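Workshop exercise sheet. Pairs work together: one partner reads the sequence aloud, the other fills in the structure field after running the prediction. Swap roles for the next sheet.
Pair: D.N. / O.F.
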Amino acid sequence: MKREHLADYVLSIPDFPEKGVIFRDITSLIQDPDGLKDSVDGLIQSLKDVDFDLVIGLESRGFIFGTAIAYEMHKGFVPVRKKGKLPRETESIAYDLEYGKAEVEIHKDAIQKGTKVVIVDDLIATGGTLEAACKLVERLGGEVAKISVVMELAGLEGRKKLEKYSLESLICYEGK
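Structure field:
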């Protein structure tokens, strides 16, 4: 299946979580065997010429895609989680959401100086979570080689926060 057909698997739910919002439901994509395979294969294809050591996946749907990519490409996988979920010493960062604040963290020993990583998630919206993950990687001495996501909500302009990074999305929705 080609990238342009991946959007066929995604259900668009109007007025969720509030009136005027169209929610792009990724669960319909991953519950379909072809949708899951095609999206993982598309993300792997987006990384084919990238030199990297580790896959970083963002909680929680980034874990689904990130572990599959790490397995297939024989790389390690490192989770970036919500604060308080990791058991060892962590590096954390707070960031702004559309309606409030959040904090994510990574194990301090997960990335060594000079480690090249790709960051994987299901979605880029405002870009806040991905930007926070990039900052965590760089604080630990790592380098972000690429960001790959399944969906992009271009109308929220998250790509602007990540201009200094190579970023690829498999599906791009022009709206919010």
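Discussion prompt: The chain is about 25% helix and 35% strand. What would you look at next?
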